[in-house]
Amino acid sequence: MISEGSKAPDFKLEGSDGKTHGLKDFKGRTLVLYFYPRDDTPGCTIEAKDFTKHNAEIEEAGGVVVGVSKDDLESHGKFCNKYKINYLLLSDPESATIKAYGSYGDRGIFGIGTLRKTFIIDRTGRIAKIYEKVKPMGHGADVLSFIKGMAHM
Predict the structure, then answer these.
(1) pLDDT higher for 45 or 153?
(2) Which residue in 13, 44, 90, 127 is the catalytic one?
(3) What are the residues whose beta carbons fall under 8 Å from the beta carbon of 88, sequence distance 6 or more?
(4) At residue 136, what are phi and psi to the nearest 5 degrees?
(5) To the nearest 5 percent, what fractions of the chain are helix, strand and coil?
(6) Within 13 Å of residue 99, how many CA atoms lie on the same side as its CB?
(7) Which pTM does this prediction carry?
(8) pLDDT band at residue 151, thresholds of 50, 70 and 90?
(9) What is the maximum span of the chain, computed from C-alpha positions, in angstroms?
C-alpha cells in the first residue's frame, strides 16, 4: 500500500509531448502527479482547467503538474487543444501506473476504473502528500498552497 513518506513508484509512460517519461525525469522538482478517469468529461475538465489556471504559480513554486489517465495520446492531444491545457498528460492504457499508485478501484455508479487522486512527490522521490477523493473545483489552488508550504518545511 502506498502512503505518505514512502518512495513513489517509478513509471514509464508516453506523454502528450511525444516523449516517454519516468519518475527520474522530475527529480529535483516537486511533482504533482494526478490521476483522473477520462479526458473531456465534466469533472476531469474542471480539474484540468483548474490546474491550467494555477500552473504558472505551481511552476514558480518549484512544482511540475502531470496528469495521468488511460486515454490514448490522440485523446490527450484533443483535450489539451480544446481547453488549452498547459502541462503534460501521460497515457497509461494498461492502467499499470494507475494501479501502482492505488488509483484504480470502485467508482460507485461509474463502475471500476481510475480514481481521482493526486500525489505530491518531493524532490527526492518520496510521497509528501496524497489527496484521496479529490473534488475537482479548487483542487489546483489547494495543491499550490501545499507546495508553497513545502518550501518552509
Answers:
(1) 45
(2) 44
(3) 15, 16, 17, 21, 64, 65, 66, 67
(4) -60, -40
(5) 35, 25, 35
(6) 5
(7) 0.94
(8) low
(9) 41
Three cell numbers at 48? 484540468
Average pLDDT on 121-125 reads 94
Place of cell 525525469: 25
Q: Which three cell numbers stand for residue 122?
A: 518531493
Closest CA to 39 of 61, 68, 65: 68
Q: At what angle do helices 139-150 and 42-60 cross, to 10 degrees?
A: 30
Q: Which residues have C-beta within 8 Å of that of residue 23, sequence separation ≥ 6?
A: 8, 9, 10, 11, 31, 121, 125
Cell 513545502, residue located: 150
Domains and CATH numbers, the chain: 29-150 (3.40.30.10)
80 is catalytic: no
Neighbouring residues of 93: CB distance < 8 A, sequence distance ≥ 6: 70, 72
Q: Residues 79-103, buried b or exposed e (16+ Cβ, 10 A)?
A: bbeeeebebbbbbbeebebbeebbb
